[in-house]
Amino acid sequence: MTAPGARTDEEAEDLDVEEVLALVKENPGAPPGGPVPAHAPHHGHQGTSHRPAEHRHRATPWPEARTTAERAARSGSRGARRAPVSVPLDAALGLTLAAPLTALTDLPSFDTSAMDGWAVAGPGPWSVRAEGALAGHAEQEPLTDGEAVRIATGARVPPDTTAVLRTEHGRSDDKDRLHATGEVVHGQDIRPRGQECRTGDQLLPVGTLVTPAVIGLAAAAGYDALTAVPRPRVDVLVLGDELLTEGLPHDGLIRDALGPMLPPWLRALGAEVTAVRRIGDDAEALHRAVTTSDADVLVTTGGTAAGPVDHVHPTLRRIGAELLVDGVKVRPGHPMLLARISERRFLVGLPGNPLAAVSGLLTLAEPLLRVLAARPAPDPYALPLRDGVHGHPYDTRLVPVVLRGDEAVPLHYNGPAMLRGIAAADALAVVPPGGARPGRETELLDLPWAAGGIGVCFT
Ligand SMILES: Nc1nc2c(c(=O)[nH]1)N[C@H]1C(S)=C(S)[C@@H](COP(=O)(O)OP(=O)(O)OC[C@H]3O[C@@H](n4cnc5c(N)ncnc54)[C@H](O)[C@@H]3O)O[C@H]1N2
Ligand code: MOO
Q: Could you tell me which of 103, 84, 60, 67 has the C-alpha nearest to residue 329?
C-alpha cells in the first residue's frame, strides 16, 4: 500500500530529471546530502512520460543489461564469436590471441655478448685477434686459452669463450696484450642460448590482448603472423533527417556528432567498423540497411524512442528480431536497446542524444563487443566521489568524472544532449539509484583512451 502523498514507482518513473532534482532538494531526509555540483539542467524530453506503461516496465536494471549483453555474445554453440584467423603482426594490435604464443626458437637462439668489449678465454692477459665479432656476422673460430676477440653487443660469442670483458674494463699494454682492470667472473656478460625461453615454451596464454609488447615478443620468437580472434564487424547506421555532415548548424539542422564519434570509439572497444551509413528518418532505408548488412553487429543511432519517425522498434518487429534489452534503467540513455537479429548477429540501438548514445555504447555495445572480441573483462574499480551527485530514485546515473589524486570529480555539462563533460572526462561514475554523497566509493567505467592507454583505440 502506498502512504498518502508518497509517489508510486510508476509515478516516480514518470518524473523527468528536473523534477527528480527538485524532489531531492525538497526532501532533506533523502540522499545525497552535502553540496551538489551544479550540473547543467537537462532540457527536452528526458522522461518516459510519453511512453506506454507496458513499455516502461520492460526496462532492464543497468547491471543486468550489461550481463545480458555479455551473455548474448556467449550464447550458441561456440558463442557468436567469429572463427580464429591468422593475422600478420602489423595488423594484430588490439586483437586477442586464439592460440597460445609458443616459442618457435630458443631465446637468445645462440650464446650472445651482452656488452661491447672482448670475448676472452681463460685468465688474462689475452692476445687480441685481428678481426672482431660483430652482431649478425658469421660464427668465429673457437677461442683458445689466453686469446680474446673484439665483440659487439648481440654478436655470437665464439665457441670456448669463458667471459665477456666490457670495453671500459680492459686496457692494452705496449705489446698490445689485453688486461682486465678488475676481477673477471666466469660467464660474465654472456647471455646463454635459451636464457629467456626454449623452443616450445609457452610465452603467453590464449586470451592475451595483443599489445605492442606482445607483437615485439612474437617477432622475437619467430612469428610472422598470430592466430587471433578477429574483430567483430560493425556497421553504424546514423538515423535522423536533421543531421548535417559539415559546416555550422542552421535552420533547425544540427551537426551529426555520432557518425564521427562512434567509429574510433567502437574500434577502441575491439570492433572493425565496416560501414557508416546515414539513413535519415526513412523506415524503408533502415529496413534495407539492416537486412542487407552482413556485419556481426549493427549499431543504430537515434530513432529508439516513441516519436513518429522513430523507426528502430518497428523495423525490429518487421524482421522478427528478438528484443533482449528494451530500455535500461539508466540516465541518460534509457531508451537504448539490444536485439538479436539472427543466430549470431545483433543490433544495438543507441539513443540519439549524444551522451545517451555514449551511455548505450558503454552499457550494451562494450560488453557485447568485448565478448565477441574475446577481450578480458576489466577489473571493476571504485574511487570516492569528491562531490555529491544527485541520483534518480530508481535508475542508475552515469556521470562524467575526472580523476584527481584518489578521488573522482563529477563534471558539469552532463546532460543527455551534451558531450562537453564526457570530452573532458577520464571515466564515467556509476551513481546508484538515490545518488551518492561526497566521499562515497563509486564504481568507475574507464574510457578506452584513459585506461592504460595502450592505444588500441587509435588503430
Ligand atoms: N515520447 C518520448 N519521447 C522521448 C523519450 C521517450 O521515452 N518518450 N525518451 C527521450 C530520451 S530519454 C531520449 S535519450 C531521446 C532518444 O531519442 P531517439 O533515440 O529516438 O533519438 P532522436 O529522437 O532521433 O534524437 C534525439 C535527440 O538527439 C539528437 N540526435 C540524434 N542523432 C544525432 C546525432 N547523430 N548527432 C547529434 N545529435 C543527434 C536529435 O537531433 C535529438 O535532439 O528521446 C527522448 N524523447
Ligand atoms: O535523456 Mo535520455 O535519458 O536517454 O538521454
A: 60
